[in-house]
TrEMBL record:
One of its GO terms (cellular component) is cytosol. Coiled coil: none annotated. This is DNA repair protein RadA. SUPFAM superfamilies: P-loop containing nucleoside triphosphate hydrolases, Ribosomal protein S5 domain 2-like. The middle region has homology to RecA with ATPase motifs including the RadA KNRFG motif, while the C-terminus is homologous to Lon protease. ATP binds at residues 96-103. One of its GO terms (biological process) is recombinational repair. Gene3D superfamilies: 3.30.230.10, P-loop containing nucleotide triphosphate hydrolases. The keyword rRNA processing does not apply. NCBIfam families: sms. Keywords: ATP-binding, DNA damage, DNA repair, DNA-binding, Hydrolase, Metal-binding, Nucleotide-binding, Stress response, Zinc, Zinc-finger. A motif (RadA KNRFG motif) lies at residues 258-262.
């Protein structure tokens, strides 16, 4: 058989990461996703003929950038994360666990955009819900005060019907709750599947770009905490935001994972209340306990959430273990990081902690992932081990290494000014060649290079 008449050998490719294999498998061998491997034919080289250009290319200096100017939503913390507000033609994906408050945040933002402001005209907003009925969304809007004359509401699960609503209303902002509930009759698969999510997202993105309409998409997350659907979805949209929060706490944090129009190191803080969700402009102090007297095993630290210093408290409790395997329990901290600090304290500082149960937690449900919290965790454990409280109005931060050294962390000066503003008077910080910078009047800074030096300051032999 000649090469011209030989049939192309079929192959299989993952629709999320592009991993290829010669035979079908249920799980991708690269990204470990289930049900994403599909059959594809052998690659064929095709050429596309040129067509007449309707809109000639422009010099970049002649492009009108005002058409992509930010439009504030009226929700201060949401605007902070987005970089200033909504951009016409942009597509924003908001993901989060069920019940975290995604729908409440978006219905509030939609109503504020529809009402406009002092210097902003009111805009048409279309809210498409596929998870609830229109009456259920209206009840929530009544409860949180999210009503506006130019806010339209429809309950649709068919993509073509939803696009027809866009044609009729011609909104400036479209909210889709959620992208996994819409489906198209033009492609196979159930709603929420890889093929359907790709088709729905592609159609909505095309409508956003052609109309200059901002689209806000609500996305589900998997049990691992990642955004459900193909990874291509995150590549196609302009902004990806994660809405985080503990179900047992009213505090919610909004992070920008991807942002084509602004920074990705900003964090918005919200408080979920009975009457809706409100922005928290100054979250410092929300994650600190209120005790009149100093208690052993507690230490305050400053973590950088994006570019915003955030005050948090670490609490540690040590008790003699009743078993041969001491227990290590953590909440709000990385358990492996705490285990490492326990080993450093025992080996480098001479504290006998091998037979003690260790319980380490943060206050208020905040999660500390930054290594700058190491020094505070270590001092809290040392305070609990010796049953001696640390001085009040003291803040400690710095990264602790396996050799017992205290390493510099970014933003030392910014952290010091934040805690000084809150009324604290002392800080233990890592020594750096540049120093802590200008220190507020009346504030004392102790620079340390090793963990033993910090322990000797508060627990002299």
């Amino acid at each position: 058989m000649s090469s011209k008449t030989k049939r192309a050998t079929p192959g299989y490719r993952c629709t999320e990461c592009g991993w290829a294999t010669a035979k079908w498998v249920g799980r991708c061998g690269e990204c470990q996703s289930w049900g994403t491997v599909e059959e594809v034919g052998a690659a064929k080289v095709r050429t596309t003929p040129a067509r007449t250009v309707e809109t000639p290319a422009q010099l970049i200096a002649d492009v009108d950038a005002t058409q992509a100017a930010f439009v504030p939503t009226g929700v201060a913390e949401l605007d902070r994360v987005l970089g200033g507000g909504l951009v016409p033609g942009a597509v924003v994906l908001l993901a989060g666990e069920p019940g975290v408050g995604k729908s409440t945040l978006l219905i509030d933002a939609a109503a504020r955009v529809a009402r406009g402001g002092v210097s902003l005209p009111s805009r048409k907003v279309l809210y498409v819900t596929g998870e609830e009925s229109a009456a259920q969304v209206k009840l929530r809007a009544d409860r949180v005060g999210a009503l506006a004359d130019s806010l339209y509401l429809t309950a649709e699960t068919d993509l073509a019907t939803a696009l027809g609503q866009v044609e009729g209303v011609e909104p400036d902002v479209l909210v889709v709750d959620s992208v996994q509930t819409l489906s198209s009759a033009e492609v196979d698969g159930s709603a929420g599947g890889v093929t359907q999510v790709r088709e729905v997202a592609g159609s909505l993105i095309a409508a956003a770009k052609s109309r200059g309409m901002t689209v806000l998409l609500v996305g589900h997350v998997t049990k691992e905490g990642t955004i459900a659907g193909p990874r291509l979805l995150e590549h196609l949209v302009d902004v990806v935001c994660q809405f985080e929060g503990d179900k047992h706490s009213s505090i919610r944090l909004l992070r920008a994972v991807k942002n084509r129009y602004g920074p990705t190191d900003e964090v918005g803080c919200f408080e979920l209340q009975e009457a809706g969700i409100r922005s928290v402009d100054d979250p410092s102090g929300l994650f600190v306990s209120r005790t009149a007297q100093a208690v052993s095993g507690t230490c305050l630290t400053v973590t950088m959430e994006g570019r915003r210093p955030l005050l948090a408290e670490v609490q540690a409790l040590l008790d003699r273990s009743q078993t041969s395997q001491p227990r290590r329990a953590t909440a709000g901290l990385d358990s492996s990081r705490v285990a490492m600090l326990l080993a450093v304290l025992q080996r480098r500082a001479g504290l006998s902690l091998g037979t003690m149960d260790a319980y380490v937690s943060t206050v208020g449900g905040v999660r500390l992932a930054e290594p700058a919290a190491d020094l505070a965790v270590a001092l809290a454990l040392a305070s609990a081990a010796q049953d001696k409280p640390l001085p009040q109005r003291l803040v400690c931060f710095g990264e602790v290494g396996l050799a017992g050294e205290v390493r510099p962390v970014p933003g030392i000066g910014r952290r010091i000014h934040e805690v000084s503003r809150l009324g604290f008077t002392h800080a233990v910080v890592p020594a750096s060649p540049q120093g802590p910078g200008p220190v507020p009047k009346g504030f004392k800074v102790k620079e340390v290079t090793t963990l033993n030096e910090a322990l000797e300051t508060f627990f002299p032999a």
